Amino acid sequence: MKDLSKRNLLWGGLVFGLIFAIGLWQALSQPPSFRGALLEPLLPAPPLQLQTSTGEPFDLQDYRGKVVLIFFGYTSCPDVCPTTLAEMRLLQANLGADAADLQVVFITVDPQRDTPERLTTYVQRFSPQFLALTGAEEALQTVWDDYGIFREIQEVDSAAGYLVAHTARVYAVDKAGNLRLTFAFGTSAEDIQHDVQILLQEATP
Q1: Alpha helices of the chain — where are they, by DSSP H?
Q2: 6, 153, 168, 177: which one has the fewest Cβ atoms less than 10 Å from its Cβ?
Q3: SS3 at position 43
């Protein structure tokens, strides 16, 4: 009777161990769960060739091996743009040393007012590592179209001049240069950090 009990305990232990191992394998083999909007099918990010606000050429392809977060906005924006860039600054701080593999890019939707000097001053208020991009309106229009950016000038009775209604999403490009995720305005900094850390942990192609 004791031998039977021992065998039952042994088999029970083996079965439990097997179930645990299978569950662990399944958990490890499943793709990570993102909190932002995952873009499928997986496609390369549209070409992005503009100029930085300090005059250097910018080509998205040069940033392979880094995670790039792209946001379209303008320096006269009263709310959405400064809020988003403040979240990017918090994200950068929370990532610590891992932030070396992250590049935040701010692309103007208001080239008429956003001079290179103004763009440089604006983004550096948030972080000296952030890049602001501009260019001829034709080149910008191509980028806006490729990334599906809505942009509309709105005349208002304000000393600040007109407003620009625009798409307020952050676009995440992974280390392989794929447009991987987007984050709607209002996505928490915690959720963005969760997804960015997954992308940062992926192998460099």
Answers
A1: 2-29, 80-95, 116-124, 137-146, 189-201
A2: 6
A3: coil
pLDDT digits (tens, 9 = 90+) for 177-195: 999 999 999 999 899 999 9
Q: Does 161 lie in the same domain as 60?
A: yes
> Which one-letter amino acid corresponds to residue 60?
L
Higher pLDDT, 5 or 181: 181
Q: What pLDDT is attached to residue 14?
A: 46
- Model pTM? 0.84
Do 2 and 76 fall into the same domain? no
Q: Where do we find the tokens 């946001």?
A: 71
Distance (Å, rounded) from C-alpha 68 to C-alpha 177?
9
* 20 and 102 co-located in one domain: no
Say if residue 120 is in the same domain as residue 68.
yes
Q: How far apart are CA 148 and CA 171, in angstroms?
A: 11
